[in-house]
What we know:
The chain has 139 residues and is an alpha+beta fold. 29% of the residues lie in helices and 28% in strands.
Amino acid sequence: MRSSSLTLVVVLLFLSCAVRQPWLGSEESVGVRYDAVWIPAEELTGRRQMDGDTAWFTVNGWTYKVRFEVYCPEDETPEGQAATAFTTAALTAAEQVELEWLDSYTWDRPVCRVFVDGEQLGALLVEAGYATWEAPDEE
């Protein structure tokens, strides 16, 4: 009995390490759009809420904190709060949200293009003046 329990534990540990997330990190997933479900701030118990260029999504049953491909001011600033409000409104109003993984990570988060009803959210943020394509210079 003890041997079979030990075998079961070893197999479960192996599987938990061997199972890769369904879309992050696979070469075939770069540039592919995945349907996603945005998780509003009020549902993020125990997790840091989103800001203008970061949000939580569920894809294929997995939950991810995703960094957008644009740069918004920090949420502690009035400009950052305006960017967060813009992003929240866009995600709330969207009938369809899609993520396109860009094969890079920033601050241990996947960087994705986020599409709301077919429009690139990063481009909408830049056009509205809430974000830039390039990272701001660190002072």
